[in-house]
Amino acid sequence: xxxxxxxxLALPFLAGAxxxxxxxxxxxxxxxxxxxxxxxxxxxxxxxxxxLLLVLSQKExxxxxxxxxxxxxxxxxxxxxxxxxxxxxxxGPRVGAVLFVALVIAGQLAMAxxxxxxxxxxxxxxxxxxxxFAGLLLIVGGIxxxxxx
Length: 149
Description:
This protein is mainly α. About 75% of the residues lie in helices and about 0% in strands. It has six helices and no strands. The longest helix has 28 residues, at about 5-35. About 10% of the residues are buried.
């Protein structure tokens, strides 16, 4: 029997499944355009247009005061996304989907362990444990095995 909030588990799984596909699509786009940055721009433009439509369809819109209260670090998530998309379009096709995703997961887990441990970026504080560290080491070991094959 599925828990009532099964979709909270399904959405990240689906988003994760899309990462290598998105990287491959953007890599092909970069090849077709002969430009990694142009491919990243198109990817963001299409995503921005889709999000704009969703925001405009909301019943309640954020007011100008909400935007005025934002600090500099609220804005850098988009820069991180741009970095990821450009990196995926460039490195993904060169290292292969499996190694690319394994490296992304290792980076995500390393950052997630730090975010939880220190309670940064709005995450609840959850100290690093041996199990969490061992999980990261297993992924690093997986990267080593992937590189050897």
